[in-house]
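hey can u run this one w/ adenosine-5'-diphosphate bound, need the structure tokens asap thx
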Amino acid sequence: MYARVIIDITHEKLDKVFEYSIPPELDGVLRTGMEVIVPFGRGNRQTSGYIVGFTEKPDYAPDHIKEILQIADGRRAIESKLVTLAAWMKENYGGTMIQALKTVLPIKKKGKLLKKRLVCLLLDEDEGKKQLDFYMNKNQKARARLLAGLLDQPRQEYELITKKLHVPASVIRTLEEQGVLSVEEQQAFRSPWSLHMADQRRNRHEIVLSPEQRQAADLFIKDYDQGKYGTYLLYGVTGSGKTEVYMEMISHVVAKGCQAIVLIPEIALTYQTVLRFYGRFGDRVSILNSRLSPGERSDQMERVGRGEVDVMIGPRSALFTPFSNLGLIVIDEEHETAYKSEQVPRYHARETAVMRGRLEGASVVLGSATPSLEAFCRCEKGEYTCLTLANRVAKKELAAVYTVDMREELRRGNRSVLSDRLSELITDRLQKGQQIMLFLNRRGYAGFVSCRSCGYVVKCSHCDVSLSAHKNGRLVCHYCGYEEPAVKECPSCGSPYIGGFKMGTEAIEDLIKRRFPQAGVLRMDMDTTRTKDGHEKILSAFANGEADILIGTQMIVKGHDFPNVTLVGVLAADMSLYTDDYRAAERTFALLTQAAGRAGRGRKRGEVVIQTYSPEHYSIACAARQDYEGFYEEEMRYRRLMGYPPAAELLAVLVTGEDEEHLNTAAGYLKEFARRAGGDRGLQIIGPASPFVGKVSDVYRRVIYLKSRDYQLLITVKNYMEQYIEINKGFQTLRVQFDFNPLNIF
Ligand code: ADP
Ligand code: ZN
Ligand code: ZN
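ok here u go:
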């Protein structure tokens, strides 16, 4: 037996597996995931690596193979668990072991640990002033400058003093000897939040959980104390106080000496949210976000390694925080698409969290007002435990929702994007000095074609997903490849008002400013949030009442609580309904429900106007009633009928290459191979089709879909395909990626 070892995952050049022989004393002891010390390179430098597997037939001549020296000390036991997790991810999501390891292991860019030195004044004000006079009289300018600076601000950073006040180090030393000041050293962890947070703990007022919240937390706690680590779905309407329940659970786990990870969609990782966690757990909270530099990330991990952190909050990647005693993983807004990785391995944080929990004896709590169909379905099957919060806290009512049929508006001669109802309510709120959010549902940029007179949408007759307009004018199904020519008039009612809906946030802003010149307007979209903290600035400005109306894309739907918002308008609610995507209805329902949940968070009851061309569609009708379960039933019926997840399992195989003809041939062979590998076991194969973006910078793309009720069968076929691709020369110039239960049709 030989061990397959990965030496260093941070070096692209070493992006391969090395083989080592196993000394007799380690025979039968070594396991996948263990860290070992091996000789490496010409000089046989001792270095460490991870075992990623074993083989009986090495690729190299056996007498050239070196021997493993020893197992690395147990210090990094946690990493071996993460390596096991990586192996599971490779198996379940495809890709190479190195890609999986890079995803789970913290990068050890051990740069210098930043030490921050502080210069601190030791004298009180009177003494200080006396001493200052003394320096002035003696014309000791540098000393006077330094002391004056410290009297102004008694604790200052060393570097700032030498640079800003131009005080040489020798002067600081002299004053230190004279007992005027002291130089203190502290580790500078560049946590972007901690400085502002220090004072927050004092302001915290105790919250007493409602009976419903208490019941949810207690059920979890009871299981936990009995050593039952499971997966829970905290299904609670918007504003039902889910975060308080998470914190109660985390407190319990931390009190037992364990740690917790809280995943939050990046977009909702706002000052307000983070503040609540600091308020409860103080400095033992750490935050990751994508804006941190590698150094800052590494600092956070360093703190984790030293046991200084109990709670890590962050987006998807925080799931791999190397806690030594992980007790709980919380995934807030678990239905969010951001939890699925777009890079190989294309893992889903939900399933990966459940697996990590199983490996480490930790529980997983998923939270949402609009759970993913996957999560709710597993609750029905009894795989997850459902904890329900049916009411908003403090008996606040859900907002009243009105649906406006935009076809009707057009018939009455109103061609504006604002319905009469919404305009009236905006005027009313402006008069009352209350705030308004206008939400433009823009997810449907993909180019579906619909009729503004009757709402008809052109769909694929084979797949029941909408056709997309391509530049060449043809309408194409990205799912099965079906095509038809573009339409000039509506096939259903004959109206010429058929086409794509094009209206951006900027155009809406102009329109609103013209219609309501007296209103203060803020806009939040990709353009206005490009700068660092752009998000936060707009949200805080709105929260501070600096504007009456906030216009934005889906990014305004989450995170902040705005007590003064009493009206939410949803423009073009159907935009996200007809993307060429089987999850379109689920997304639309979630977006509308979350948007409606923004209204009436304060003392005044809120109102919501949903403008749509298809008020009868169940995702819109159910969202208007805030009826998740009704939606779930309807949507599951559709998924079962069409064989889409979670009723069945779906594997997308994306093949890309520069030579279109060669790509077509290879994709055809691959499909044929997959058919032979799994065809007689109930595997359904669709495609190869040209995905929405059929070509990116001269690289062509084709996609094959494999469907089955049996996830394991898909994994088996994937493994066969991987082998086939590796030995088959025809694939050397192509790239093949696997995506299990994709969120988008490519
Ligand atoms: P969700 O995440 O379910 O939308 P949050 O946890 O954000 O809800 O709670 C909404 C608001 O209600 C927050 O301002 C929170 O502080 C407050 N809140 C939650 N639980 C309670 C409680 N038991 N008593 C008083 N206020 C609460
Ligand atoms: Zn029509
Ligand atoms: Zn089709």
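Residues 188-203 have pLDDT under 50 and may be disordered. anyway lmk if its weird
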